[in-house]
Amino acid sequence: MVRVFLVEASSFIRARLEAMLASIAGAITVGCAAGAEDAVRKILSTRPDVVVLDLCLSQGSGFDVLRAVREQAPEIDLYVLSNFTGEPYRRRAESLGARGFFDKTNEFERARDTLAARAAQTTY
Q: What one-character DSSP code corresponds to residue 84?
């Protein structure tokens, strides 16, 4: 079972992500947060396998979360799912340790496929 934590300010997108994860065999949502500080605190206490992270949060940014989690729990894989998809955002996320970067508009299914592949690896 791959344990996934969602960091997303939009309740609509968060619900869509939860539904997507529910459709993946071997994946479970273990927590959610809308702001950077809350996300870091909950991620470090929950210690999920994977974090799906937006860049635009209610307090702070996804980069703040990415930096803090990578420093304190480098074993957790973080994937960015954002509408801010320009090359500078992608490069910064990669430099901070993101394992993948997906465009919410055009790559939602690709994000799902990546998480499904990760769940399949965990079950074997």
A: -
Block means of pLDDT (10 residues each) for the chain, 124 residues, are: 96 95 95 97 98 95 97 98 96 97 94 94 64
| DSSP-derived secondary structure letter, 71 | H
- Alpha carbon distance 61, 46 (integer Å): 20
61-89 per-residue burial string, b: 16 or more CB within 10 A, e: under 16: ebbbbbbbbeeeeeebbbbbbbebbeeeb
Residue type (1 letter), 65: V
Q: Tell me, yes or no, if the pTM score tops 0.85.
A: yes
- The residues, ordered by sequence, that sit 6+ positions from 124 with a Cβ below 8 Å of its Cβ are none
